[in-house]
Hints:
- By secondary structure, the protein is of the alpha/beta class.
- It has one domain (about 5-35, about 45-124).
- The chain is built from 3 helices and 5 strands; from the N terminus they run βαββαββα.
- The chain is globular.
- The two termini are about 15 Å apart.
Amino acid sequence: xxxxxxxxxxxxxxxxxxxxxxxxxxxxxxxxxxxxxxxxxxxxxxxxxxxxxxxxxxxxxxxxxxxxxxxxxxxxxxxxxxxxxxxxxxxxxxxxxxxxxxxxxxxxxxxxxxxxxxxxxxxx
Length: 124
């Protein structure tokens, strides 16, 4: 696919800066470049898309993120997470996001998840 796309779910109150940095780096720093799309998760997620959840330390209070994960799963859109802003494997994950589907913000790990997502769900 020439221009794979990702919807990024994040805690607007705590992780907006990380979202902006992540979106900017996605094209240039990732071994598997992709475009972060800015569209509402209230609409149907386009095909050949996956949902990346930026997991910060305050995820327990980000109820909208859990709703976006649920919608992605309902639409058969693959979901994975990336730890940001000091979050790690001890951080509470939003409902619906598996720990083994959440990786450090290292582009080789993210690219491996992107490559996997391109073979799952509606992308299969």
